[in-house]
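Bench notes, afternoon.
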Amino acid sequence: MSFIENNLAESEMAKTTRRAASKAEALADTLRLAIASGEFPANSLLPGEVELMEQHNISRPTYREAIRVLEAEGLLTVERGPRGGTRVLRPTIEPIARQIGFYFQMQRMTLGEVMDYRLQTEPAAVHHIVRARNFDAIEALRACMVEQRAAISRNDPAEVAIAYNELDDEFRRTLVKHSGNGITEVFGEILDEVMTRHLENRAHATRSAEEDLAGRYEAGVGTKMKLIRRAEAGDAEEAANVWRLYLNAYRERIEEMGRDRINLMPIAC
């Protein structure tokens, strides 16, 4: 085969590959839309492989490439065996948060910037809860604090730290869940995941700087109980201000510990 013939053959192969990729992307888009619209609800099975191949006039490799794309996005899982099939999953926030977190890291963003966003949204969420007289949310916040106060009385410092941080996250999630704004709730979950990964990955590098964990835990519980009392009294402005001051103090502590720049990779000692 001549040089020109070889190049032409390679060009045709490249075109064929691009066409297959384009068809796979088109099928992935179609299935993604069907999942989002509820045509294929969570936990349901997609139509069979052969049926979808015939319906969309595609080859088996093209079909499987589309399925791999949606598996990577966390929308599908392929179950093996005689009763298996391709099952629709309910999307979770973790893959999205992971991608956004690494984007933040590549852009050299800081936790201070994350805290700026939280300072704009979370006090507003507190204000909304109180003004809406959302007693279910206030009761959920109080229950969280009862658990957190019990957690900090444990003897094992490692257990205390884990329980305190988990309940701190739960308190914050409850706030944004009842913010009255779905976008605030979703972005709150994403930023929670980003911050949790960052703080876990560099916890060992800063643990020695934490001198009075017990005192900090007590102060944190006390501040959140003050917020709850203000909320129960119907004082939306003061409740929001309590949370604003708490977030500002949290931001200052992060900056004092150093390593404020977002880093989702484990930090060497």
